[in-house]
Amino acid sequence: MSIITIERKVLEKNDEIAQLNRTSLKQHGVFSFNLVSSPGSGKTSLLERTLEILRGHLRMGVIEGDVQTDFDAQRVARYQVPVIQIVTNGGCHLEARLVQEAMAKMDLQQLDLLVIENVGNLVCPANYDLGEDFKVVVVSTTEGDDKPLKYPGMFCHASVLIINKIDLLPYVNCNLAALKQNALNVNSSLRVFETSCTTGAGIPAWCDWLKEQSASS
Amino acid sequence: MSIITIERKVLEKNDEIAQLNRTSLKQHGVFSFNLVSSPGSGKTSLLERTLEILRGHLRMGVIEGDVQTDFDAQRVARYQVPVIQIVTNGGCHLEARLVQEAMAKMDLQQLDLLVIENVGNLVCPANYDLGEDFKVVVVSTTEGDDKPLKYPGMFCHASVLIINKIDLLPYVNCNLAALKQNALNVNSSLRVFETSCTTGAGIPAWCDWLKEQSASS
């Protein structure tokens, strides 16, 4: 049995469980997204800002994926939302099975929105469906404007692009228009938001859009 | 045959080829390192600064690893050094076999130092020996000070830590002392440099150290 066959079987099995997760979320009326990016792009900060604004409007839950530590779960728990930490112990991405186990520990009846924050990795999580409604990829201006072209897989699989740390644009070598165009060249259907978790810029627009999506889901 | 067995066999095969690469580099008197980090930490910028300073002192060659595009090879080629681009086509790390193929295209007799720039990924490349003398992990201040604790594998496998983008410290939420201490808590033998590829700070110290290492190798 070749390695490629094994990999295909792993992905097939993952997709089967992802479909079970998706069905369960739909049955409970829970809208969900999978937050992906490089390490340090600001996924957790964005999530904190989002929780701050939306917690009066939507009942939210969070699944945190990390290679090690429960630092992110601790940060999120301060917003009084249910949070389950998955530690992958070296694993480079979340899999549907891990999310299924985490979901079993949550009361889905009590949720409108489930956010799954993936391991910081711009490559591997692209191929693993977790059962979410869509993927949101975060890229920060400090990473440069060429990343969508150098790591196209993730940008192809995402429905939303959040360009974060726009407050740092004056200090870094990043052309915002080029970054956006590079992303749209890879995936023309991306919905793009520009945010700063430091100044708060762009966060209300992102949250308004999430509310709309949740209402119409 | 289980997936874990397959994975172990893949790593064993990789390590065998890495050992062949290492022997070949030693036979040709070539000193080498494997440059690893998250996407956008500044690996290529650091390499450009290093080539600028060292090209009169050491005969250098570069192997560039990217998921897609040859942008980095194009940047490096401007410094008139031999460069081979490896495109992994979605692969999340370089493997010894790919480096072996790239090395076969270089005239090792003409080199003192070979730099292998890995795919931007703070997780997967940690487990793949390529035959290099040591790994250099780059982390930028914009990624925050918790990354060594959240992604310990890479910091354990590296010999050198370069903290890059120190010019951005006034604008980001990163405690430099904590970042350094977190890295040393994971691996107390790390040699640490602090750099900015924008201002050039710290680059001469790093280059001086590289010259010493090359001379004593």
Q: Which class do the helix and strand fractions of chain A yield?
A: alpha/beta
Strand content of chain A: 15-25%
Mean pLDDT of chain A: 96
Share of helix of chain A, binned: 40-55%
Oligomeric form of this entry?
homodimer
Q: Could you tell me how far the N terminus lies from the C terminus of chain A, measured between alpha carbons in angstroms?
A: 42 Å
Count of DSSP H/I helices of chain A: 8
The greatest inter-chain interface is formed by: A-B, 38 and 38 residues
What's the Cα radius of gyration of chain A?
Answer: 17 Å
The run of helices and strands of chain A is: HEHEHEHEEHHEHEH
Question: Would you write up a description of this structure?
Answer:
Two copies of one chain form a homodimer. The longest helix of chain A is centred in the N-terminal third of the chain and has 25 residues, at 3-27. Chain A has a seven-stranded parallel beta sheet, sandwiched between helices. With 217 residues, the first copy, chain A, is of the alpha/beta class. The first copy, chain A, contains eight helices and seven strands. In chain A, helix 7 links the parallel strand 6 and strand 7 (191-194). Chain A has helices at residues 3-27, 43-54, 71-77, 96-104, 147-150, 152-157, 176-186, 203-216; strands spanning 31-37, 60-66, 83-87, 113-117, 134-140, 160-164, 191-194. The first copy, chain A, is globular. In chain A, 48% of the residues are buried. At the A-B interface, helix 1 and helix 5 of A face helix 1 and helix 5 of B.
